[in-house]
Specification:
Elements (H helix, E strand, L loop, with lengths): L3 E4 L6 E4 L5 E5 L2 H7 L4 E7 L3 E5 L3 E6 L5 E6 L6 E5 L4 E5 L13 E3 L24
Parallel strand pairs: 3-10
Antiparallel strand pairs: 1-2, 2-5, 3-4, 4-9, 6-7, 7-8, 8-9
Length: 135
């Protein structure tokens, strides 16, 4: 297993992940569109206890997601970089954009495809769910 590292745009927040990802997904939900500036969110699921912030203290904004479950959006309080989402599952959804190395990660599933605007590119070869898949 390789230690994964990442952080925010301004460098105030750094984190480490000491486990293999449980999967990689693309989320097209409306909240992810807001958080990303319009596009979907590319996320890797990491076991909750494997993610450790080693520099800085992120902030969290909580609100009910499309499924009705609370979603905690964790971000840098200085530059606003989205870092991860916490949906209360045994995993955290780490944003691929914050990882130092993400070139080898390929989404295996797309979720909340019913919320995707027509201009979101949806690869028909990647399995999809109109809402959240069962966890």
């Amino acid at each position: 297993m390789t230690l994964k590292t990442g952080g925010c745009l301004c460098g105030a927040i750094r984190y480490e992940i000491d486990a293999e990802f449980m999967g990689v997904a693309v989320c097209h939900c409306r909240d992810c569109q807001y958080a990303s500036g319009g596009g979907p969110n590319f996320i890797a699921m990491a076991p909750r206890d494997s993610v450790r912030f080693v520099e800085g203290t992120p902030r969290q904004y909580d609100r009910p997601g499309g499924s009705g479950a609370n979603v905690g959006r964790v971000f840098c309080p200085d530059c606003g970089t989205p870092l991860l989402s916490d949906i209360g599952a045994p995993f955290l959804a780490v944003k691929l954009g914050g990882l130092d190395e993400s070139a080898d990660l390929k989404p295996g599933v797309r979720i909340w495809t019913r919320s995707a605007p027509a201009w979101h590119v949806i690869d028909p070869a990647t399995p999809g769910f109109p809402e959240s898949p069962p966890f």
